[in-house]
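pinging the channel bc i need a second pair of eyes. not urgent but kinda urgent?? the chain im working w is below, pasted from the shared doc
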Amino acid sequence: PLQAQRRQRPQVAQTIRMASMAKFGVFSPAVYAGRIILGDKRLEKVRGQGISLHSQAITEFCVFVGATPKMRGLLIKKAKTNGDTLGFL
C-alpha cells in the first residue's frame, strides 16, 4: 500500500505570551509602587529576573521528582496563570 508522506512541522520555540494587563490582585499595589519607585524599564528588568529564577526553581523541582519536560511546561504555564490572578504580571 502507498503511504502518505507527512510534511514535518517546522520546529518553533514556544513562547509564553504575557497579558497586556494583569488582573488586579493581592500583589497589584506592590507592583504599582514598584513602577513608581523603579520606573517601567527597571521594574521590567527586575520582573524578568524574578520570572527567570522562578522558572529555574520549577526546573530543579521537576528534575528532583523526575517529572517529564511536558509536566515542567505545564507547571510553568500554571505559574503564569497564578501570577496573573495575583496581580504580578
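so The longest helix spans residues 40-65. and Residues 14 and 88 are 22 Å apart (CA to CA). — does that match what u expected or am i reading it wrong
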